């Protein structure tokens, strides 16, 4: 990852002041020279005090970014929206009209519109800032750290704190966060594509170069912004911050990505659609009025403009963008609480429509608490007692008898090899034994201790080389100096099939014997048996080497002609919560799939225990390789366990699901998982065991590496989406209600007695300020409260939402239009009843009639908020579940009362005080939306019930 923000830093003068081709460049110097120049100790690293001194001298290891847009600019960007511009135009027109004909003390309408525009911009700005802060904070939770030596101790530090002279420890999958000169390597390869464009990993060593070399050829250096493809290494930091090679070209890399999610883009489209609708409706009505009524020039123009302003105000859901951002931000935080850390906001939406969750096994579906249970060698088998990493527990024959001489010798050697080709340590911390390093390797150390091999393993041979483990090779070896016999020894552990194919002999007692075909097949059968007991299997072997030098490509040719030592069966129990999560995923119509590097039998048995598969069928990576894409498409349709797969197979599996039109969430932890993570709809990295590279390629990181967390995140994703739909339903129906009220109010003005004393032009049923007020009051708190509605208990009992289904479905539009029509009809009727003449004769003034209509329309919104919680469920189900909603309704009522009774506001909004009987009438009319919608929902449920009985799908509209 590229370091972000803040000031620039420098490397020490000795090195950085040298010109690029000068001899003082670290890649041209020996390790000793570099260490001396940077005044550091390759074994101890810097002391904490020295590191602190250098940090204050050179500054933090961060790249200066292009300045983020100023607050002012970010505030201004809130006004870019088409709908906001429409409102500003409306305010200007209204202000001009007031100037020409000042009918009130102040241009209240223009002021109100502008105030609302500003208020919304302010809310939008704050929400956006909050959302981006939330995402940044979450990113920091998964921020990359660097491992360094400080005062002889291995320490994890924030990358910003790296200083020149630090000794950096690098492992497969690590991001390199500073430029550094390598001082030790074991099969180290780095991915430098970001810097040099070279897509293949480049091999690294420690040899100084004789002449000046281009970046890509500096084989003894690693650079900031690159990552470790495989192997390990140690390096001295030579440059940090802007002095790194990446820092120099940082200016070129500033790509601003469109961070808007598909949902936000869709909402932009809805916004534009509304804008266009306003213009169209206004034009139609104006044309009609001009045709019907004979009005003269200036008055007509005024009327037209006033009407245009009002209809624009009515149609615009002012608060929508701010609410969407708020709901997404709150959702992201809710997910974080459940250990799912979102890196890309769009994942929140995509998660809700996940069809397939393809998960690793080890550590995600299982506990990653490894215990060696059984060792099988040429002379028989032994079992181990004890659980966890405490090195206590007896070793005995399966029947309980003592282990006799030959078997014991074989077992000890098999375990010694496993404990040597090993980088894990076990430690007792406060009475609890834990592993530092790979749990599989930790289990081998524990078993070796249980067998009585303690110090001997550590002391006898000194390690000179390591051939690191990788998921592709499925092997790891170390080369040791043999203190007794002179030459060298290679110890190997790895997947039994791989190890067996590289072995020619087998240890029997203390003698190597040729490995016959019969024995090979017996070993394979024993391996299958171990796997059938859900044990993770590993084999060990060794050989003598004439020299400690690595021959061939990275010395891997040394891993042949091995003497096979034995099979080791390791227990890694399934996670209890994973079993429940699998069942939950299934009931939600999501298919859990296991994709593992482990043995197919082990995988299948565990998959069955977890409920991922009923049969024990598993497809292996080797089988996958021989398949065409068409074959694979058929296989993924019915297979849920993929075993012994390489990371590149994962990519093919993701692609096959993609071809089937399914939305896939895929987990990964290694460097080579990155392409599959990127290709999947939701790439999920492991927070604990995952490499930096995989985290950066992911959309979401599991803080606890747990499968159950993915399912929880899907549930949250579904809830968020359902809530967004709820307030969309609510806001849009309220806007449509307002537009219809204005439209039909003006159209039917004569019929309902809507006329102003002495003028013949258009008389608006409600003033633009009043509509704005309704929008402000109802779009604010109640809509926001809807966004925080608790999860629907049925959210995980429905099939996933199809990816191409919009936020507002056609079915929702029908509901929205239905509600809008009821609101308009009710409001117009109350208006009619309040004014003299019309269908229902009343006796009030125009101001009184408008106040009544205003109050009715406002109450309509408050009743409708309960409707909007579902298209299918009755509003009375869980009526009190969301307390915020009730608080919001209370607040809205209080605000509305203020507008009607406070004299200053009365003047601004042209309202008059109304009595308790008037309130009752308005409330009765407004409650119709609740009853009518209940009736409609009742029939919808009956219909849906019938559908469901017939076919168990097609219900996405229901939430
Ligand atoms: P998953 O992909 O579900 O996490 P996994 O962790 O079992 O599965 P890998 O780590 O790729 O997959 O391991 C594949 C095989 O390699 C294992 O079944 C085991 O036989 C062998 N193996 C695992 N860890 C090591 C190791 N540290 N050294 C040598 N061999 C190992």
From TrEMBL:
Q: Which SMART domains match?
A: Cation_ATPase_N (SM00831)
* Keyword check for Transmembrane helix: yes
Query: Record's SUPFAM superfamilies?
Result: Calcium ATPase, transduction domain A, Calcium ATPase, transmembrane domain M, HAD-like, Metal cation-transporting ATPase, ATP-binding domain N
Residues passing through the membrane, by range: 82-100, 106-126, 273-292, 304-330, 730-752, 772-791, 812-833, 845-863, 884-902, 908-932
Ranges of Basic and acidic residues composition bias in the record: 1-27
One GO term in the molecular function aspect is: ATP binding
Kindly give the Gene3D superfamilies that the UniProt entry links to this protein: Calcium-transporting ATPase, cytoplasmic domain N, Calcium-transporting ATPase, cytoplasmic transduction domain A, Calcium-transporting ATPase, transmembrane domain, HAD superfamily/HAD-like
Keyword set, alphabetical order:
ATP-binding, Cell membrane, Membrane, Nucleotide-binding, Plasmid, Translocase, Transmembrane, Transmembrane helix
Biological processes, Gene Ontology terms:
intracellular potassium ion homeostasis; intracellular sodium ion homeostasis; potassium ion import across plasma membrane; proton transmembrane transport; sodium ion export across plasma membrane
Boundaries of every Cation-transporting P-type ATPase N-terminal domain copy: 25-99
According to the UniProt record, one GO cellular component term is:
plasma membrane
UniProt keyword Transit peptide, yes or no: no
Compartment list: Cell membrane
Under NCBIfam families, the record lists: ATPase_P-type
- Name-wise, this protein is Ca ion P-type ATPase
Q: Which organism is it from?
A: Sinorhizobium sojae CCBAU 05684
